[in-house]
Predict the structure.
Amino acid sequence: MENRTVLVVDDEPTVRHTIGRLLARHNWRVLVANSGRAALEMAALNQPDIVVLDVCLPGIDGFEVCRRMRADARLSRTPVLFLSGLNQPDSAMEGYAVGGDVYLNKPLQASELRMQLDSLLMRSRQAPAPNPLTGLPGGQSLMLETERRLGLNEASALLRLEINGFTSFADRRGATVGEEALRTAAQILKAVTFSGAFAAHLGGNDFALLCREDDAQPAAAQVCLAFDSVFGPLNGLSLAIGVALGSRMEAPSYAALAQRAAQLKQACAAKPSPSSRWLC
């Protein structure tokens, strides 16, 4: 039997019990904590594979727990799945900004929780280290996750994203500001609210987003709106996004989706625009 341990952190006994029973039935070794301080102590002592972390906790909240985990060499790469009853986009953005990997709103769907935990576990065990600047997984992780979903016959889409004007922006504002822009773009991608969205940093100003096909164009619109609201046309930055749909391919594969998304992204970038846009 596979050895896998999850730490469930919630101050509500009913939530801890419900999640714990669900995961124990599916061969997880379950540890529980009812506060942020207890979570940090148990995580350091037991080195769990994943931490399921409530946002609203007494004393140290979930966001601060995650910040301290990311600053601890023993826990810096432990996947964190946030749970929240706040259901607010700003809260999700903060969760990803402090280093969270997944943000789910309560009430939970059991199937969604299990899918996200299985995906996080696979990525943490198989994938190379994330990009040190943005914290996002890279191209190899994206390929593995895409092939996994296609192997399950999931209708998937791949978005390739490029920050137009980034080189001149970084030249004008300096490398430090340019790096901060990349980190902000990564946070925007990680905060996409569609279930199962998987963001990746392919290098430089090139990013990707894997999602369900029905969510592809709404996700592209959401990312464009969020990016433009942060940077605006005065900074000379915008996104060009190519959206490749698996249903339009006879035999969808990661290579085919990536190639088509790159072609569409290049076509979109070839027509400069002060605002972000996508092409499908």
Notes: The chain has a mean pLDDT of 90. The longest strand covers residues 156-164. The radius of gyration is 19 Å. The chain has ten helices and ten strands.
